[in-house]
Amino acid sequence: MARHSFNNGRAVFTSQHDQKKEVLRSGSLEVLSRLEGFLRALPSGAYARSLSEQGSTIGDHMRHIANHYDLILGALEGKQSRIDLIARNRMDRIATDHREALRRVQSYRERIEGMEMPDLERLLYVRDQDDMHSDPQELPQCAGALMREKLSQHSIHHLAVMYQMAIQLDKGFRYAASHTNAFSTPAQPQARTPK
Question: CB–CB of 100/93 below 8 Å?
């Protein structure tokens, strides 16, 4: 657990490492909040409907996000050190069940709120491939970078795609996020230099 004291109601962290952990936690929670808001605003018939016969659905993108969260949170919670993003569980129910997707996003938020943040430098081994034509590779990645890139940034990318799909499926759809730009990566506070 990050050691900190409170000064005027604000946490003061004992180390820059602790501060980085909390920035990653709050960024991840912000992304999950955006996903939850989007899912709540989405018209019920749009979730599992495709734009074309062979096209993906919003539910397919949500399933993809959920696969990453399940695998990466499991590793961050110390359950494994290897993550296979190619041979993952496809979770078909999330692809078709709007309520299940919402329930899953809420459970990820609870897990992140309650978990002790990992050592950000801890190496995890991630098996993935750049595209469908390249050979899979297993590469080491720091836990902090994995959390930022494969959870936050990756989810924001898919949220933007899902938003565009929702607009095409329902011309009146608007997701009124309370953020200046609902699909940008949450701002990272700049480290302050000691005076």
Answer: yes
Q: Which residues of the chain have pLDDT under 70?
A: 1-14, 88, 130-133, 176-195
**Distance of CA 181 to CAs 28, 154, 162, 185, Å?**
16, 16, 15, 9
* Structure tokens that stand for 25 in this block: 């936690």
Asked if residue 153 lies in contact with residue 111, where contact means CB atoms within 8 angstroms, the answer is no
Q: What percent of the chain has pLDDT over 70?
A: 79
CA distance 109 to 66: 12
The one-character DSSP state at 51 is: S
- In this structure, are residues 113 and 105 in contact, taking their beta carbons and an 8 Å threshold? no
Cα–Cα nearest to 21, from 115, 149, 155, 129 = 115
Question: pLDDT (tens digit, 9 = 90+) per residue, 84-105?
Answer: 888 767 778 999 999 999 999 9
pLDDT digits (tens, 9 = 90+) for 60-73: 999 999 999 998 89
The Cα 70–Cα 25 span in angstroms is 16
pTM of the model: 0.78
| Of the options 1.20.120.450, 2.40.110.10, 1.10.10.10, 3.40.50.2300, the CATH number for the domain spanning 15-169 | 1.20.120.450
CA distance 135 to 130: 8
